[in-house]
Amino acid sequence: MCLAVPGKVMEIEERDGTRMATVDFGGVVKEVCLEYVPDLAVGEYAIVHVGFALQRLDEESARRTLALFEELGLLQEEFGDPWEAAAEAGQEAGQ
Length: 95
Known about the structure:
Elements: E1 5-15, E2 18-25, E3 28-33, E4 45-49, E5 52-57, H1 59-72, H2 74-79, H3 82-94
Antiparallel strand pairs: 1-2, 1-4, 2-3, 4-5
InterPro entries: Hydgase_assmbl_chp_CS, Hydrogenase_HupF/HypC
Protein name: Hydrogenase assembly protein HypC
Family: Belongs to the HupF/HypC family.
């Protein structure tokens, strides 16, 4: 399942001509492309889908949505368990 998830922009940098951000999704931190929302600033929230910020979001809406996703277990489903993914990758390499 793919979700559009709200996240808080923690850091912004330009990488190879592309505006990128480090975004915190309620404790899960990922790299996100900001090309669709070029004026997004550090400290603001955005809706993110498959690694692209799509729209600015107010903080209260973002916090409510993240709390609901966490309650429903959707953040874990969307981002997965990094230890589980590493274990699976190790098993596949050994096959």
